[in-house]
Predict the 3D structure of the following.
Amino acid sequence: MEEINRSNARCDLDIREILHEGRRLVAQGWCQGAMAKDAQGRAVEAASPVAVAFDPLGAIERAVLNLLAGERRYLTQNYYKGFYALTWELHTHARLAAWNDDAMRCKEDVLERFDLALAHATRPMPHAPRAAA
């Protein structure tokens, strides 16, 4: 039964879905200094079931996994859709992480970044690497 469900899993998510889910996750809990943190403020993987707060990139990773029902096979190609949208004008993972971790940054700034990415979601994005078929 599990194999049937996996074969029917979506593989190409809409960028708006990814951004909306990522924004929702940040709105529920935002963090700095790690892609995700648990309720005690300890760094954890974004995919961890104990993760309750996310930086923008951790939120994108978790959003993709949520939307793919945990199916990791298509994580990379969909993660990069959200990544490219969020790094618009910042260009790199390191710059987005530094931007998020700035001491003057607040959750509202990060939510605005998601809103900006959503507003620009209709413009052409660079293609993410395709997962091997």
Observations:
- Residues 2-119 form one domain.
- The beta strands are 36-37, 53-54.
